[in-house]
Amino acid sequence: MTTNDSNGNGKHASKKEPVFVVLQLSGGNDVLNTVVPYGDGLYYDYRPTTGIAEDKVIRLDDRLGLHPAMKPIKDLWDQGNVAVIHGIGYPQPDRSHFRSMDIWHTAEPEKFVGEGWLGKVIREIDPQKQNVCTGVSFGTGLPRAMYLSGTPAMSVSQLEGYGLLTSLAGEKQRRALNSFTRIYTPEEFDEQSMLLEHIGQTGIDTLTSVDMLKSAPEGYSTTVEYGSDPLSQNLKGIAQVHLSGIGTRVFYAQIGGFDVHGNELNMQTKLWDNVSRSVSDFFTDLREHDAAEEVVMLVFSEFGRRIKDNGNGTDHGSGGGAFMIGERVRGGFYSDYPSMEPSKQLNGDLQFNSDFRSLYSSVLDQWLGIEPTSILNGNFEQFDNLITPLTSQSVSLT
After folding, report:
1. Which of 331, 249, 299, 270 is nearest to 23 (CA)?
2. What is the per-residue pLDDT across 331-371, written as a single tens digit (0 to 9) for each?
3. Would you say residue 398 lies in a domain?
4. Model's pTM, two decimal places?
């Protein structure tokens, strides 16, 4: 819950609300080189050129460990704030980037649908569309997961300078924005035209979001030195918007490059160094502002990679993995790590043993307090006690 003054500036409300952040690893992250089964000799048999040396793995137990670039994630693991979900996927896996990501975004593996699962979440949280910034994505374009016709969700490429017609200044900008506002006044439209009404509402929502989001950096300060890379800056932007108190409940960010058909060892080291550092900085920033407890993050990728390397990288596979991160996450391993035994493989891939909709269902029910069935079009077994529900706490208005 938030309050807004006449300028659209958000203020912290009287209680904390659960906030959900999704971080998408685009390209198909290689889970075998992320959560490394260093205690299984088959891993090194199948990965003669791309396997992570046993003495470099950051050990989590006597069988599994993290990629050596993931020390910041290991630090969060040691605090009990990281859950690793093994073997996540869906029936009849599709190795197309586009189709597989579409399935994750719509929570519908059997047919093509237009509604994003997070779009439904945003509608459930704010059915009257009182806050156009209930859902905000940082990056290029709005992810399919957040799209739902008639439900606003904002996409921001860069928070600083966010706005309309920012290349204009002073009176020219004011005149242009006044014209823009008149264009999107609802009574200007033929009420019979659904398309024009949709365009008009989108314009009005955009104007409102500009007023709200452009104020987020004001008054923000931190001792955390975020990197200059896009992911770091996007997560910094999420922290700024969250701390501004405008009431955003669903955030989205993404990083690409995980399609490591070649040069995997170098590429994945750079990628996981980036992701681990950025995520750690983000949660450090939130803790510094006493705002970490109300945030949990899902880190996922559309699929895993083949068990056997191709000599310099790995090809599209299945049986991936996901992370849940946050102070309210009950850390540890969930589900079984898929076997690499030849008889238990799926045509050279890891078998999936955790339906991704079970993870979504757990987040919806345990964290956001939303009944999952209508969002996911079915009932899916949850991960027990994955997330501890947020206890409302009074906070000061600012």
Report:
1. 299
2. 999 999 999 999 999 999 999 999 999 999 999 999 999 99
3. no
4. 0.86
